[in-house]
Every structure is written in structure tokens, then in C-alpha cells.
Amino acid sequence: MWFFSDDERAVQQVARQLAQKELAPCIQRIDREEGFNREAFRKMGDAGLLGLVVPTVDGGAGLGAVAATLAMEELSAVDASTTLSYLAHLILCVNQIARNGSPAQKTRYLPKLISGEWLGGMGMSEPEAGSDALGMKTRAILRGRHYILNGSKTWITNGPVGDVFYCYARTSEGRKELTSFIIERGLSGFSSGKKFEKLGMRASPTGELVFDQCRVPLENRVGEENQSLAAMMRNLDLERITIAGISLGLARAAIETATRYSRERCQFGRPIGSFQQIQAKLAETSSWFEACRALTYSTAKAWDEGRLTAREASLAAARAKLQSAQMATHVALEAIQILGGYGYTREFPVERYLRDAKLMEIGAGTNEILRLVIARQMLGEAATSPAVAA
Ligand SMILES: Cc1cc2nc3c(=O)[nH]c(=O)nc-3n(C[C@H](O)[C@H](O)[C@H](O)COP(=O)(O)OP(=O)(O)OC[C@H]3O[C@@H](n4cnc5c(N)ncnc54)[C@H](O)[C@@H]3O)c2cc1C
Fold it and tell me: Residue 335's closest CA among 246, 260, 239?
């Protein structure tokens, strides 16, 4: 993109090299075994990728949404599920502590999260509160110098393996009155619940977080009581922009594989790329991909430059995420079609791209919820809809 800075291009290069060296050799095995590439996070720490969006005064690179989205695109072109875990760490946990944490919280958590010694995640969704995130029930009650948390979070990326989670809980009856807490593994009454078996994103462990009379020190509350909603929503917008980068990486990899195959595979004595129906697929998928890429990076750039009001940011982020997610699933399906029987097998990675891409239409706001967000911004009160968060 013409407006990428030298620093952003450097991030793109670093992420591309790291993906080839650390992710490419093992993703097929980890996907099959539903494991986790913990070592890759230490390497990402060494390469400076885990503090990309953290201000330099706090030990980060001081970059923004464009750089983070570029990293997502490059890493996910090789391994989208480790990239999903990276997104949960960088955007949902590290960024939230950097933006909203006290000096003491930043000092305690950021160095180890930025180096890769600790792995982060974020707990918002609950068994009965997914799209309706404001319906969360996890409760925090102050008792002396501790909060007592009861409840559970579910589908939490890095839940089974993470060390630190940025979690939201209810501290009063009001639907919008949420409070943030930093939850450390080892706190009394905190545990990981079940780990989910998944269709895709299998190298990104997803699980429950359980709070059973969990004692959280007062110092772990982030900001004031009942004041976390705005920061949660703003972080969701940033998540939607940067996760669109994962859709872009998946789609790019699918298009590259399909293009190569179209040149090499011969039927009826000719490369299949000489058939107009195959050409049409390549032309359509690559055009939709480029449109989504332009939309996503221009949204990220506008975000970094502070040119968007909160409403504009939420609208633009929803559009970029919605289109990129649908595009990635469609492109992965078309790539499987171009590869024919081979596309349906594990001989080629396109079936993994499809399994991974489908998550892009569910996590960080489903397609349906994003359409609601967009229509509500366009129509205002005329679009009667529930108060939607996730
Ligand atoms: C792999 C994975 C990783 C995740 N990581 C995290 C994480 O790290 N942290 C976290 O907090 N959460 C995480 N999530 C949770 C994710 O954000 C939710 O799954 C998502 O918000 C949808 O919620 P739900 O699954 O409860 O679906 P539901 O809300 O139950 O929705 C079910 C269906 O109904 C539709 N629907 C719901 N409401 C409406 C409406 N008003 N109008 C029209 N249709 C509607 C939905 O679009 C969907 O099709 C993750 C999920 C997955 C699968």
C-alpha cells in the first residue's frame, strides 16, 4: 500500500521471515494434533512483534493498527491459528493493559508479555453471553483489599495456555456497568476449564476460564469501577480491523496456491489455467481480495491518524471485518474448487485455509452482528436492534 511507512514495511518483512522460519515447518503437524507453538511466541518477542502497539515509553515499538494488521496478514498467510493467538495476546491483552493500565500494572505485566515470557488473552464471552456480551454474568464484589469473582468465560483464545487475561466482570446491576480486571494464572479460585476441539484454528487453544470465589487483589482492577464499557468497545473495533488482516493473509495464501496450481495442473492436454471458468475464479477472487485489502488498510490508517470519531471507527471496522471475513471463506472455497480432489485432501493447505477462514465470520462479532452494527450506524433509531457488543 502506498502509504505504508518504512517502519511498517520493516514489520511486514520481520513477520514474513518469522512466519517462514518458525511457523511454516510445524503448522501442518500442530493443526493435526491440535497443539500450540509456544516457542513461536518467544521468537516473536525477540523480533519485537509482541509490543508493536505499545508506546515506546512502555517498552514497545510505538506503532499502530497498520503495523499490527500487516503482521497479522504476513503471519496468517502461513499459519492463521497461531496468528489468532497472537492477536489475542497483542490486541486484546497487551494493548488493553498499555492503554488502560496504571503505571504499576504496566510495570508488572508489560515487560514479560512483550518479551514472550508470558502469554496473554482476553475474557469477555460467557456461555450465555456471546453476541450479547453486555449480558455477561461474571460478578465481582469488593471485600476489603480483594474482589471476589464468580462466573465463567468461554471460547477464550489462549485460555488453556495463557498466563495473564484481561477480563470483564459485572460490578453493579446496570447492563453497561462493567469493570476490567487483570487475572493472573495462580490466583486462588481461578482455573482453566475445558479446552474445545475445533473445526479450524486448531493451533490456537480455545477454552474456558473459571472463577470460583476467585480472590483478585484490588491492584488488579483496571481503571474505575463500572467504567470499562467504552474501552472494551474501542478495543473491539481495533480487534475487528486487525483481525481482518488474518482474513487477508488466508485469502492471499489461497489465491497464491490456486494460481500456481492453475499453471501446473494439466487436463485435456492444457494447463487448467487456460480454461475460462478457472480464469474467472482467479480474476474474481483476487479482485475481491484487493478491495478488502484497500478497505482494511485505509481503515487502519484512518484509525492510526485519529481521523475517526468513535461512531465512524465502529462503522469502518465492522465493514472491513465483515467483507474480509466473507471474502476469505469464499476465496478458500474457490481455491479448493480449483485444486479439485487434491484441494479436498490434506496434501495441500487450502482445506485448512477454509477451516480457519470460517472462524473469521464468527469471532470478534459474527457477520450478522456486524451487519446490525453497520445498519444501526446508517439508519440510527430506525434500525431497532439490541445493544450489541461482541
Ligand atoms: C475460536 C474462537 C475464539 C474466540 N476467542 C474469544 C476470546 O478470546 N475472547 C472472547 O471473549 N470471546 C472469544 N470468542 C467468542 C466469540 O466472540 C463469540 O463466539 C461470538 O461473539 C459469537 O457469540 P456466540 O458464539 O455466543 O453466538 P450467539 O451470540 O449465540 O449467536 C448464534 C447465532 O445467532 C446470531 N445472532 C445472535 N444475535 C443476533 C441478532 N441480534 N440478530 C441476528 N442474528 C443474531 C449470530 O450471528 C449467530 O449466527 C471466540 C470464539 C471462537 C469460536
Answer: 260
